[in-house]
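Incident log, entry 3
Record: Discoidin domain-containing protein (1149 residues)
Problem: checksum mismatch between cached and fresh output.
Input:
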Amino acid sequence: MKLSRTLKRVLSLSLSLCFSATVWNLPSTLAADEIGGVESNDVLPGKQVEETVGTDDWGTISKIVGKIYGEWNGDGYSGAYSDQMPNTALLGNGDVGITSAGAKEQKTFLISKSDFISAGDLKGVFNSGDNNTKPLPIGGITIQQQTTPVQGNPNIALNRPVKVDDFLSGFGPELLVDGISNDAYKKWCTTNLATPHWAIIDLGEPTSIASYSMYNASLAGEPISRNTKDFALQYLPDESGVTWDNVNEQSGWVNMDSVAGNDAAIVNRNLATPVTARYVRLWVTKASTEAGKEHVLRIHELELYSKRFSNTPTYEKQDILNAQIQTKLSINGVNLSMETWLSPSKNLLVTELTSLGSEPVDLEVNSWGKADNRNYPATADKVDGYAVATRATFNNAPLNPNSWTSKAALATKVLGAESTVSANSLKGTGTTAFTLDAGQTVQIVTAIGGGGKTYDSTNKLLTIDPVSEASALLSPINDTQDIETLWADHQSWWKNFWSASYINLPDYADVQKYYYGAQYLLGSTARSGKVAPGLYGIWHTTDTASWSSDYHLNYNFIATFFGANSSNRHDLSLPAGEAILSFVPEGIRRAADPNQIRRINGDYVNSRPDLQDGIADAVLYPVGIGPWGTVTDDNYLSEALNASFSSYPLIQYYRYTQDKTYLETYVYDYLKKCVNFYDAWLDKTGDTYTLYAGYNEGSWAKNPAVELAALKNVLSELIAASVTLDRDADLRAHWQDIFDHLAPQPTSVWNGKQVYALAEKEWKNGQWVDLANPVPGDGNIIPLDIVVPGGQLGYYSSDSELQIARNTIDVFGTRAWSQINNFPRIFNDAVHSRYPADAVLGNITNTIKAQIQPNLRISDGVHGVEKIGATEAINSMLLMSDRGIMKVFPNWVSGKNASFARLRAPGAFVVSAAYDGASNEVQNVTIKSEAGKPLTVASPWAVGTDVFDSSGREIEITIGTAPNWESEATVTFDTVAGETYTLRKLSPKYTITVASGASLPSKARAGDTVTLTADTPQDYWVFDRWVSDDVVLDDLTNPNATFTMPTHNVSLTATFRNTVPLLETYGVLYNKDFTQIEFPIRSSNGKGYSAYLSTTGKPGTFKLYKNAEYNSKGVRFEDLTKGQTVYVYVLYTKDGQVIEKTDPIMLTP
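Fresh output:
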């Protein structure tokens, strides 16, 4: 099929009905196959993450995540080309984005890069085409049969004569058979109101027709609603007398095939019975389902074939556990399988391609730069033996010293087969050709180099040359061992990623499917040290990304990262903070410029003499910014909140990690500049500070709710940080005064319920009035942005405040739950407001079912990666902290099991817990303290909570109650950094009484393990055994035996035995002059006897008593102190051996 590389120019608005986006031409035939199918359980084995590294619960994690994946049957790849976020399989390493695409007998991976940013004119004028500062795609790689004439089953309609009922100028009938199926400008299009529409093809002579393919609008990035809906392919059984001139007048047309209700981008069908005909008519009875444009027809290509298509379907699986794409397809009758993955640490894309057939197949890999816009030039070359393609961006501001040009390069090699390399620079395509033998496996490796600010405003190279970088990445990869080394790194990274935390909600499969899909997208699109993802992540497949895929600061940008910290993937939120901070120099300039602050509201600024010189040492951000301090949408929309509102990821990273260096280096000064702006901007009357700004885009209000909450949030965090860092002590009282004298969050009454309002008053017709609509009419949950990210309402707010929040959700009816802006917000707000958990889960499930795409992203037709942010709502149902109090399962459903491991809480605590639905009771709570901060936990059990460290030692706790909720008990205890604590349900302690020994602990709960320690034996005695009727010991003869504490007090005795015969005594004789111990003495002169004395009787304290006198009755002591108790034993030895001894005897003269 021929290709088009014609440069496109802007067409007139009259053509807008026929296209919606410019997409590029792939360097080969595009087709699809809808024949047959692969069942959802027909999963490709693929490479699996080995269970050799990571946590002990990897088996559990892999079982949960391994059940969640995306899959596709057929080769339509609908939604791969999109101005927003693709709907096909995705890979990413936070820098490079890979989007799966392709067609019949062809596989394509589209390649984009987070820092491949076009400068444009750097003016920040929204929607200004190539002058926008925006991310661009680089190009891709395409694997297909080598470009030779198709002998097996050629397209017999290619370039044949066509006549149609009508066409729009520039979109004529010849484009229906020109062999170009994926170009937005190459299609037959008609806007004629009269239907049916028809097209007739003249094959030149009667020809056998067995199958056909039709390519519809969504293949080129247009909405699915524009795909041809109802149609038939027809022929004339009797063509006698039929000519090209009268064929359209014939009435005997018969269906050879018909389709109703089609949504597919590519229709690929075998005829039930082959027919022979010269003339073929396409008869379209329903052109589209686009509202108001059902008559508008757009068909990119119609192909006819004399042979049936293979019954081997294309199947693809997005395996999120192993972060790879597994593909099965057929090329030239040979079945192939592919496993494709992207290195997490190097910009290397690997496709392991295996033949499943019995014949060789000649293949080529085309590495191509997108080459359809002269402002973004593409080239190709052969470099170091590799096929290399490049693409560069547009700098239309060369006089601006901050401008740049970015260039990226793709370099490809094939391992395991002999290959030849060629390049077509005009098409920007480098080709690597090889033969894949039957049963053979090869590795196709593509290196991605460049991106970023490659050249400065003078076109001076600032970085390593992109082609050289790509070549250097590719050079060390030479054999399967090198591939295995890359794969081992890939395994390790993704295993660590999934092991960071997990949840298990066995009764909520749809929620769990969304949750892990969102985590995969976050791990793929964000990476510390890389350019932060914009609205649509790092996957850009057209040059016209909606809203320039920028950092939109009125919630969209920061919402992506809402759940990163609580998911214990806090490092992935760092790019958000870096993006916000990169704009600080420009934000300072804008705040200091009176003309800029007048753009918020000129009348307000002009009424304030103190604002005429701008605001020094402050920041002011527009609504849309981009990487490296650029502006994409230079508007304020009457709001000054963008800087303070967007401080959320900075604040949250510190709160969840307690990284003081981060707080001091990055957060503190930013918060201070935010507060400095409002310190000047606020209107102070008496003791009251009043905020004037818009409550939504373009309004003007008194104390607008969201901006007011954002201000309070940065104030409170700044004051706390000032104490932590011991900075600006002299300013704290002033900051606290502002905070204390700001207005409360505004409320109003709507539909009979008190709700949180958009603002206290609004300016209308020259006066302050109550808001006609205190909540948005479209269901946008703006008033509850005071929860997240505003931080002014939470789980431990008063019941009355939380009821107002619940009312605010309820007054919208059901539409707020599915409103397109609300997905990362309303469920979070609801959980923090103690909204019934079953309703929250029910509504999020409904939205997920309605909007989840095959690649597991949530799509409402407008927004992108911000949908990841609803993971925070799910985490918060399991673990929440508010007002310094941590709570497990704060808002969970009675009777439903749930568990989580290693979720993160503010204060740098990592928590695991389980909830047993049968007993409706929390179980197994463990908390690791990373920073050693004191911790207050809401008691998971009504009866109370005990806390133990990792050694089993009980930790002293202080019992309290939650603010505003005195019925809820709390426990507070000190923690040690690195220590893990276990929380257990309070149970009674029982006493352990030990004679001649001790126990640890001395009191224990039923089920505790108690360790005994026998006293040290006297000389010539040894421990014998423990005696007790109360417990069963693990070893009666062990002086350090253990037992499990029963549900009662216990008593035990340690017994000992002599190691020599006992010398029995007759008694003790006390005399005023001496004390005598009487015993049967062997020699009256005392030969062989010795006496040992101790003042305490404890083992080891007895010493030889040299003044003892012996006689026929025993031993006498004459110099003992009257009234002083001592302990004595007597020893008899002979020839150095102990013969016998007495027990220790207590003497009190």
